[in-house]
Amino acid sequence: MDRDAAITQIRNACNGISMELMKINPAVSALGNKEAQDEIYRAVFELTKEVETIKKRLAKLERSDETRDL
User: Fold this and answer.
1) Among 12, 22, 51, 66, which one has the highest count of C-beta atoms within 10 angstroms of its own C-beta?
2) Smallest Cα–Cα separation from 54: which of 4, 12, 5, 1?
3) What residue spans of the chain are helical by DSSP H?
C-alpha cells in the first residue's frame, strides 16, 4: 500500500466512525438515566475529538506532500 492509499483508507475509516458516533447521541436520551447519559455524552465527545485529531494529522501530511511537490 502506498502513502496515498493509506491516507485514503484511514480517512474513510474515520468518516465511517464519525457517522456511527452521530447515531449514538439521539439514542442516549432514551436511556432515562442522567448519570449514564452524561458519561456516554462525554465519551462520545472524546472519541469524536480523537477521530478529528487523526483527520487533521492526515490533512497536515497531505499539505506537506503538496509543499514538497512545488
Assistant:
1) 51
2) 12
3) 3-28, 34-69
Residue 29 · residue 37 · CB < 8 Å:
yes
Residue type, 31: L
Digitized pLDDT (tens) for each residue of the chain, 70 residues in all: 999 999 999 999 999 999 999 999 999 999 999 999 999 999 999 999 999 999 999 999 988 877 665 5
How many C-beta neighbours within 10 Å does residue 55 have?
15
Distance CA 25, CA 41 (A): 7
pTM as predicted: 0.82
